[in-house]
Design a protein that fits this description.
The complex is a heterodimer of chains A (about 300) and B (about 450).
Chain A (H helix, E strand, L loop, with lengths): L1 H23 L2 H28 L2 E3 L8 E3 L3 H8 L1 H31 L5 H10 L1 H4 L2 H12 L5 H8 L12 H29 L4 H8 L4 H29 L3 H6 L11 H11 L3 H30 L1
Antiparallel strand pairs in A: 1-2
Chain B lengths: L1 H32 L20 E7 L4 H15 L2 E7 L1 H13 L7 E5 L3 H6 L7 H6 L1 H4 L13 E2 L2 E2 L2 E13 H7 L7 H11 L7 E4 L6 H13 L16 H13 L12 H9 L3 E7 L18 E5 L10 E10 L5 H14 L2 H9 L7 H4 L2 H6 L3 H9 L1 E2 L9 H16 L5 H15 L2
Parallel strand pairs in B: 1-2, 1-3, 7-8, 10-11
Antiparallel strand pairs in B: 3-10, 4-5, 6-8, 6-9, 6-10
The chains are: A mainly alpha (about 300), B alpha/beta (about 450).
């Protein structure tokens, strides 16, 4: 009886020792990380690899036999020669430049305006966050009805003021792009305002005190102190919005459908058409990968700039 | 302290147990108290196979969905099956169905099938060919009563991949008060239509001759194809290859573009709902469109032109043999559903399209497929425009939008480039050349 007890306690000790050893080793970390890794692999890495793989195949999703024919880099070569893709790229760049520049300037201006801690500014700040909370699809639908040439509120007041609205902002080739950019600006400027507000709050006060003592004007304080100190924040905001803006889809889908003609057909909308209307998955995957590479290069550039700033 | 905590835990566990037992016991006791009169109705003859089946129907949110809502409970009562209705918008419906078919998940046993999807669904064997069921039950189906054109709602290469459900005719809706006041007869030809639209347009008063679909995408593509049909043009050549950029089609596109001069300025951005709003709000004299919307113009809740609207067959180009655009929806059965579900789904189709139920279907905003319902005195009394519909159906053309698997490619190309022409970015020839090239590049 004694021997058995002794054996059990020895075994227990060994087991405990093994667990302790395992805990202290890196293996434990892997066990803890495993669920997350499995999740990331399943929802991010696998689809990415799958999309990379099928971009080398001719693969129509609706094919009853699900035939996949290897075509090498044909899909990528086709993308480079496809006039619709080149137009879509140009349109995307205009959209990104328009939204990001306007939002940066407006966001910074709003942040400076609302930086003081007064009851009114606090109220206005929280009120400005409402557009961000809405899904882009809903925002698109609301703006589509606001812009409608015959029943919309915006053309109604424009007409009252004697401005000709023609076919309406979304159907006039010259106005469709500014009109969709305005929707994005309305929705996402508050995000930049928050980022800049956070940046402004974290600035040191000493340089301002010194500048005040030296008699610097408000403007020169802004140009020579605020802006240089705010540079890292501005870069973060720029990176974030550029990447988001490149991926725009919902707003375009809900308002213009890429029209009139191809005036607002951004790359992501074209990828959707190829993938979900033509079901040409191989080609759609190759286009999506082109977009991915563009965004990855931009991200790398910004991160490099950011690191240089911080050194 | 520890003991107190344990006692508290025990009390909570006991309370939960007691509550769950009471909760479970209540529904068990209920049936015994229920009066005998509420016992389930006997299963109707022929519908026994549906007893205990659980089906899901994916339906487009067109007007006829109201008829589904009204009739499905009747079917459930008669058959003992449970039929869930999933109402979806056009794009959502198409994409959810494709995902269901490709993944072979069979989430939907029954689905409404747009006339232009029949080629794609048939070729890819997504829906079950109904020919075996139809041959077996031919005696009950009264197939001769279904108008010949209605069979295009689901026929593909000799097989029936969907059964006729809701037939739509392209008709001319017009404001009889406005035309009478101007002394204009309802247009019988396209030339008269253009002249009337021109004469009735008064931009200063905010009143226009025509309402058209101009928005980029399916809207403008489908409206343009209506005009191609009415002018005797063609989308496909004799070999079934796309022939979008013929000189005839360019002339038709120019005519179509000219009509936009007499349409509300926002027409270049109109989808179906906005075109309907323009007509219902009384800003427009004429509109070509699907017959299913006709009843809505007499509903004061959504229309300010009650009693002022009449319909006529859609005008064709002078000298052409009259043929009218036909469209609408079939109802199909998922090829991946189980044989029992497929059998019950077929019983539902049979029940729904039977002459007796068809009258109920029409009374609840459904659209017709049978001659007997379209000539039924009660139905004609309720919908006096039924004879115009019957005439349109008898000379209907269900193929003016090609019912082929590549239809979406043609629609997308026309949707982009015809819209570019309407807003003045390109000429008619450039638009159709670009559309033809885009179709050829993507043809699979």
């Amino acid at each position: 009886m004694v021997t058995t007890d002794h054996q059990i306690s020895t075994q227990e000790n060994r087991w405990l020792a093994r667990v302790r050893r395992f805990r202290s080793r890196e293996g434990a970390y892997w066990v803890m990380l495993a669920p997350l890794l499995v999740f990331v692999v399943a929802v991010a890495i696998y689809p990415l690899l799958f999309s990379f793989r099928i971009s080398f195949f001719k693969y129509r999703l609706t094919d009853p036999n699900q035939v996949q024919t290897f075509v090498g880099v044909d899909n990528y070569l086709r993308a480079l020669q496809d006039p619709t893709v080149l137009t879509a790229l140009r349109v995307t760049l205009i959209y990104v430049a328009g939204t990001v520049i306007v939002e940066l300037l407006l966001g910074l201006a709003l942040a400076l305006l609302l930086a003081s801690e007064m009851r009114t500014t606090r109220f206005v700040r929280s009120f400005l966050l409402v557009p961000m909370a809405l899904p882009p699809l809903v925002v698109g639908l609301v703006w589509k009805s606001l812009y409608n040439a015959d029943f919309g509120v915006i053309p109604y007041y424009l007409k009252q003021m004697g401005v000709s609205v023609g076919r309406g902002p979304l159907a006039e080739p010259a106005w469709a792009m500014p009109a969709v950019i305005l929707i994005d600006v309305w929705q996402w400027t508050p995000l930049l305002m928050i980022i800049f507000l956070a940046g402004l709050k974290s600035l040191p006060t000493e340089p301002y005190e010194a500048a005040y003592a030296d008699g610097a004007t408000r403007w020169s304080r802004f140009i020579h102190i605020t802006l240089p100190l705010l540079k890292p924040t501005i870069l973060v905001a720029l990176l974030l919005r550029t990447m988001q803006s490149f991926k725009v889809f919902d707003t375009i889908y809900a308002t213009t459908g890429g029209g009139p003609g191809s005036t607002t057909t951004v790359l992501n909308f074209h990828i959707y058409t190829v993938g979900m209307t033509f079901f040409d998955m191989g080609y759609a995957a190759s286009l999506a990968n082109v977009l991915l590479v563009i965004i990855a290069i931009l991200s790398a550039l910004y991160i490099m700039l950011l690191e240089r700033q911080q050194l | 302290m520890y003991h107190k905590f344990c006692r508290l835990c025990h009390s909570i566990v006991i309370a939960i147990l007691v509550l769950s037992i009471v909760g479970c016991a209540a529904p068990v006791a209920a049936p015994s108290a229920a009066p005998a009169a509420e016992a389930p109705a006997p299963i109707a003859a022929g519908l026994e196979v549906c007893q205990g089946q659980n089906l899901v129907l994916a339906s487009m949110t067109d007007q006829y969905v109201a008829a589904f809502r009204a009739l499905i409970p009747q079917f459930e009562e008669a058959s003992g099956a449970r039929l869930t209705l999933d109402e979806l918008g056009y794009v959502d419906l198409y994409q959810k169905l494709i995902a269901d078919f490709v993944g072979q998940t069979a989430n939907y046993d029954l689905m409404t099938v747009d006339i232009v999807w029949s080629g794609e669904f048939g070729q890819n064997q997504y829906t079950l060919p109904l020919d075996d069921f139809m041959a077996r039950d031919e005696a009950e189906l009264q197939l001769d009563d279904i108008l010949p054109v209605a069979w295009t709602l689901g026929e593909w290469q000799g097989a029936h991949v969907a059964y006729p459900l809701a037939g739509y005719a392209n008709v001319l809706n017009y404001r009889k008060d406005v035309l009478e006041e101007a002394g204009i007869e309802p247009p019988a030809t396209q030339e008269e239509l253009l002249a009337a639209a021109q004469a009735l347009t008064d931009p200063d008063a905010g009143f226009y001759g025509m309402a058209l679909l101009g928005a980029k995408g399916p809207a403008v593509a489908q409206d343009y194809m209506v005009w191609v049909q009415q002018h005797g043009g063609r989308i496909l050549d004799d070999e079934g290859k796309p022939a979008l950029n013929t000189p005839e089609n360019a002339e038709i596109l120019k005519f179509f573009g000219e009509l936009f001069n007499y349409a509300p300025p926002g027409s270049a951005d109109y989808w179906w709902d906005q075109r309907e709003t323009a007509f219902r709000s009384g800003n427009v004299a004429m509109m070509e469109g699907w017959s299913i919307a006709r009843a809505g113009y007499e509903n004061p809740e959504i229309s300010s032109v009650v009693g002022k609207v009449d319909i006529a067959v859609a005008p064709v180009k002078a000298g052409l043999e009259p043929k009218f655009g036909f469209g609408g929806w079939g109802i199909g059965i998922n090829a991946d559903s189980t044989p029992q579900e497929q059998e019950c789904a077929w019983q539902f189709i049979k029940w729904l399209t039977s002459p007796e139920i068809q009258k109920e279907w029409l009374r609840n905003d459904g659209a017709p497929i049978r001659r007997s319902t379209m000539t039924d005195p009660e139905i004609v009394a309720q919908y006096p425009w039924m004879p115009v519909l019957l005439e349109s159906f008898e000379k209907g053309d269900g193929d003016y939008r090609p019912r082929i698997p590549q239809y979406s490619i043609i629609q997308d190309a026309l949707g982009t480039h015809v819209n570019a022409f309407i807003v003045g970015q390109v000429t008619a020839e450039e638009a159709l050349d670009a559309a033809q090239k885009q179709v050829e590049d993507n043809w699979q």
